[in-house]
Specification:
Layout (H helix, E strand, L loop, with lengths): L2 H16 L5 E6 L7 E7 L2 E7 L19 H13 L7 E4 L9 E5 L23 H13 L14 H14 L5 H12 L8 E3 L8 E4 L2 E5 L6 E3 L1 H7 L20 H12 L5 H28 L5 H7 L2 H15 L25 H16 L5 H37 L4 H10 L7 H18 L4 H10 L1
Antiparallel strand pairs: 1-2, 2-3, 3-5, 4-5, 6-9, 7-8
Helix pairs in contact: 3-7, 4-8, 5-8, 5-13, 6-8, 8-9, 8-10, 9-12, 10-14, 11-12, 12-14, 14-15
């Protein structure tokens, strides 16, 4: 849809919903939001945000199930109920109608503050509020979990075992075969906790989906993964390593400690969350994000969303592999095992002769950084940075990928296994992580994959300190 046509249609929506004859002003696409489009705008004196499916569609077609997201109409119902119940959720101002020509979506009040974690964590402007965020998060989750389960008709429940089985089917449907993920699925199935009375879960409660201002949380955003389940699932998901944003030593979203979170949640909700149950859901949440990353590639291939961001997120599955190994190292008591003789690869030697393919990737990255980014603004700047990340991954793979893959094949051959047998053995428990050669191979492979895909990942720094 052309920008002028989009603005005209949005103006008609605002005039119908709020009256007046003024124009829509300050319209801009907000960065991030891999699953939904968000647009900031102002109409009269009201600042608001439009939420809709990418491109104004009605979902992702057959691939929409990759996240089990509830409809935008159901999201609006739930956000409205949560706001009335005291959750710091934005007010729903208006809903799109079919005749508007903008797809399914809604307009909500725009909260002040910042949602991007890299602009909050370590920023002196937010230094005074960050220490109190852990308790505020616990309070918001306690209020969400106190909502009536009838607050939204679309919310569904699955037991822990049913939840794992559904995720495993999704993983198998993607035809993926990653040893660490296969082990994690088997471990979860063998360690599923008993069911507890289900509550309303936000489903995606984490830094990045919380608006933060000078007083703390100003809005809880992005409710599309809401469902019914174990309250420990929401609490643990907040602590998934990928949501620590470089602050690995502060597992609660990069701002605090788990003991503080659980104590505050007990104070606000009256519920005690057992640590064993919490750890189970922490492994599940980490694995869930890995499967979501894999799903991004399938969504791109199907044509559901051809944005480059999908593929870059998809490569983050290697980040999840390393995070899972660090979690299992603690869970299975594998700390202090033999150290690896492994160092991050040195920078490529000076080239000569024929142009190397990696040199082309480097040249593209330099052009993007030096010529495109200085002129880009808002969402275009975000996309340019995504492109820079993609070119970095491609460059490192061209430099080191073949040597890494050859080494991985040789290590598997030394174990007397092919890739399929190795994955099956890990999933079934027949092959154990505690076997030294297995543990060494998985650690070394995770380091090799991560140094290509996410060399700045804080988990990689921790793994290097522990293992090498």
């Amino acid at each position: 849809m052309e920008q002028d046509d989009f603005t005209t249609k949005l103006t008609r929506v605002c005039r119908r919903a709020f009256g007046g004859s003024g124009p829509v002003e300050e319209l801009k696409r907000l960065s991030g939001g891999a699953n939904m489009e968000s647009w900031a705008l102002r109409y009269g004196d009201t600042a608001m945000v439009l939420r809709r499916f990418p491109g104004g569609g009605d979902g992702f077609g057959e691939d929409e199930e990759y996240l089990d997201s509830i409809s935008l109409s159901a999201q609006a119902d739930l956000i409205d109920a949560a706001s009335r119940a005291g959750v710091t959720a934005p007010a729903i101002l208006a809903r799109l109608a079919p005749d508007d020509g903008l797809g399914e979506g809604f307009l909500m009040a725009r909260a002040g503050g910042e949602a991007m974690p890299h602009k909050i964590l370590g920023n002196p402007e937010y230094a005074a509020v960050v220490p109190g965020l852990t308790e505020q998060m616990a309070r918001e989750l306690a209020r969400i979990h106190a909502l009536p389960t009838s607050a939204c008709a679309d919310l569904v429940y699955a037991s822990p075992r049913q939840t794992i089985a559904a995720e495993l089917r999704r993983y198998r449907d993607l035809q993926a075969s990653l040893p660490v993920l296969d082990f994690a699925f088997g471990w979860l199935l063998r360690n599923a906790p008993p069911e507890v009375p289900p509550v309303v879960l936000h489903g995606d409660f984490r830094m990045g989906n919380l608006m933060i201002d000078s007083t703390g949380i100003s809005a809880v955003l992005d409710w599309e993964l809401a469902h019914l389940g174990d309250p420990a699932q929401d609490l643990a998901y907040l602590c998934v390593p990928s949501w620590r944003h470089g602050h690995y030593d502060k597992p609660v979203g990069g701002v605090g400690q788990i003991d503080t979170l659980l104590a505050a949640y007990r104070q606000f909700s009256g519920r005690e969350i057992e640590r064993e149950r919490f750890r189970f859901w922490l492994v599940y949440g980490t694995l869930f994000w890995g499967v979501v990353c894999l799903s991004m590639g399938q969504l791109w291939r199907s044509g559901g969303d051809r944005s480059l961001e999908r593929l870059v997120i998809g490569r983050r599955v290697s980040e999840v592999e390393l995070d899972l190994l660090l979690l299992f190292e603690d869970e299975l008591g594998l700390q202090g095992r033999d150290r690896l003789d492994w160092l991050p690869p040195a920078a490529a030697a000076e080239y000569s002769g024929e142009i190397a393919y990696s040199e082309l990737a480097v040249a593209l990255a330099e052009w993007n950084k030096n010529s495109v980014q200085p002129e880009a603004r808002n969402h275009q700047l975000f996309e340019s940075r995504v492109a820079g990340n993609a070119l970095g991954i491609l460059t490192r793979q061209l430099q080191w990928g073949r040597a890494f893959e050859d080494g991985q094949s040789k290590r598997l051959a030394a174990l007397g296994l092919d890739h399929r047998e190795f994955c099956q053995g890990l999933h079934s428990g027949r092959i154990e992580l505690s076997e030294q050669r297995v543990w060494d191979h998985l650690r070394r492979t995770a380091l090799e994959r991560e140094v290509v895909d996410q060399p700045k990942h804080a988990g990689l720094r921790l793994a290097l300190q522990r293992w090498c």
